[in-house]
Each structure stands twice: as structure tokens, then as C-alpha cells.
Amino acid sequence: MRAERGILIAVDSVGIDPFGHDRPESVYSDSRFLFPRGKRGEVLELSNAPLNGALVETDVTAGRERGGIECALTYTSIFTGQSAVRRHGLVQSLGLKDQLLETMVAEHNLFALFGDACLANAVFPAHLPFLGGSYVEDLLPHYSREVVEAGLHWRGRPVRMLGPQKRGLAELFTLAEINQNIFVYAARQSGVRLRTYDDVRQEEALSSSMTHELEAEFDLSFFGQSPVPLRTPEQAASILRILASQHHFIFYKYQIPDLVSHTGQIESARAAFQTFERFVAAVLEGIDPRRTSVVVTSDHGHLEQVGFSHGHPKTKVPTWCFGQDALYTAERLRTPEAIFHLFEEIAGRTRNHAARATYQGGNNV
């Protein structure tokens, strides 16, 4: 049986360690299965994974050297099956060519391949214009920088956006960044329901922080929200598995490694990756590999070079696939746009299965 359901999980800012993932200094040295010990190579079989799995090094920069790599480029490639880097180039200045990326989504949209696709991430419940535009600003209350600084607290102290007393800005951006992601635009364009913090509290969505430890550092009542419950990675994985059983395609992105990668704190980077690996393991432990394919990937590197890089290095990123024929599938996923085509095939099998069921049901009447 070939898989007829797909789970796509993204982790922000996780790249291939250019010096080797199993050296003691690597943030991945304690990896349980995502980075296997004693192995190097562009494609690796994951012998200790909960499911049959493989790891491949994916090139998100298309070999380009000039400019920067940002998440919008990679997610556009993943959700359209076209290389955003080849079409637009790397980022050359502040901001992204949003209109061109949106045009690509209008041409091809991964969410639209499935009649019941799900974006598991809940949007942040406010639009913060001082952090930039978003794809849901028409749906949310707006808060100016002055209003936020006058009323929002982080770790019990007022948030400050500018100057030597700046505090809470990176953490607030980490929570609100989900609203700026091109895949949120893709979800809206294809009619996928946008989930909220109410859904998070009802265990029908995940926040981008997964465990809500970051949300707990803020007074969410400022945004008219009650607290969201703290969760373990395993509890979050259980919610994702239930959602996956209700949809033929589901996408979730974990954001915390991006925040950690800008701190220079290596032990925090290790902890963030261990949290993510626990989450992936728990997701896989409840999956039927005959019916479901799971792909886990990243948008660009940084966590692997947390101690000495101040931006997004142009390293390749890991893509993991789990399910039947994982090693063969991994060989195909050397570019982000190839992920789209894998799920395109799954969508085709989903449609064929539905058509057969309808035909057989008609014959039984």
C-alpha cells in the first residue's frame, strides 16, 4: 500500500553541521535518531528511528552565493514546487519580494492539492504593524508599539522595543512571526481554516512554540487572551497525530530554534533540538507507515552554528522522511521544491482512492 496521507513538519533555522553532527561540540551530538552517530554522507538511513526513516541534505540556496536566505524563499519553494531562489534570487536587501512570491503561490499551492488540508499552527491573536506586515492583519486587532510598550509585560517587566532597555522584542517577534509566513497566505488562498489560540486551548491546534513556555513569559490578557496550557512535546505530538487522522495533509512549523539561534547560547540550542526530536519521535510512534508519509525539514541553517554565526549561513538543511521506501524517497528530496512533488503524488493517490471508493459504493447500491 502506498501512503495516501501526508504530514509535513518544519523546524526553523536548523542546518547541516558543516563540521559533523556527531562531534562532541555539535548541538546535535546528543541526537537520539535524527542525526545518527558515526555516520556521514548526503543520504543516511536512520536505523534508530521509531519508523523506517532516512536523512538527506537539501540545498535551499540553489547554489547561489550572493544575498541572504530567508524562510519565505524556502517555504515558497516547498508550497509551489518551483525554486523561489532560481526565480527571484536570494534576498539582496531588507524585505522580500512578497508580491512575486504570492504570484508563485497563485500558480501552484500545496494546500490546494488536498480537499481537506490542515495548517496546524494557530495564528498569533494580534497584528503588530511595527514588526512588519502580515497575511492576517485584516482579521486581527492592531496594536501600535506605543500601546504595546505601555501595557504588555514580559517576565514581569514592561516590553521595550528600542534602546538600551530593549527587552522582549525577539520573543514577541518569535510568537507573532507566524502571521508573516507565506504558507499562511497559501492557506488562506486555498480556503484552509486558520486556527486560533482558542483552538490551542481546545487541543485542536498548536502554537509555534509547541510547549507554550514562551507564551507563559508574557501576559496574554493584554491581547484579550487567557493563558494557554503548558504542554510536553509528547502532548503536542498527540494533538498533531489526531489532527493528521482527520486530514489527508497537515503542516506544522516549530519556531523556537530560530529564537535560540540568535542568542549564541549553545546549551539552549541543544535543548531546543532535543525538544523537537522528542516531538518528532512521539509523532512517529503513532503513525501507520503504510498509510502515511512524514517529511520533516527546515528553511535555512543557523542552530548548527549558534556559537559563531550572526546570520543565516548558506549551509544545506536536513530533510527527514519516514514511511515505506524512506531511503528511496530521501534521494529525491535534495531541493525544497521536490517536497511539493512528493506530496503531489500522495494527493493523486488520495483522489484515486476516493474515486475507487465512490465507484465501488455505487456498484453496491
In short:
With 365 residues, the protein is of the alpha/beta class.
Description:
This protein has 365 residues and is of the alpha/beta class. 35% of the residues lie in helices and 12% in strands. It is built from twelve helices and nine strands. It has helices at residues 71-80, 84-88, 98-107, 145-151, 169-176, 182-189, 197-201, 233-245, 256-261, 266-285, 326-332, 336-364, and strands at residues 5-11, 43-46, 53-58, 118-119, 153-154, 157-158, 249-254, 292-298, 317-322. A hairpin with a 2-residue loop joins strand 5 (153-154) and strand 6. The longest helix has 29 residues, at 336-364.
Query: What would you say the CATH architecture is?
Result: 3-Layer(aba) Sandwich
Q: Output the CATH class name.
A: Alpha Beta
What's the number of extended β-strand segments?
A: 9
Radius of gyration: 20 Å
What name is given to the CATH topology?
Alkaline Phosphatase, subunit A
Major sheet characteristics: 7 strands, mixed
Looking at the structure, what is the overall shape? globular
Structural class: alpha/beta
- Kindly report how far apart the N and C termini lie: 27 Å
| Neighbour order of strands in the largest sheet | 2-3-9-8-1-7-4
- For CATH, the homologous superfamily is named as Alkaline Phosphatase, subunit A
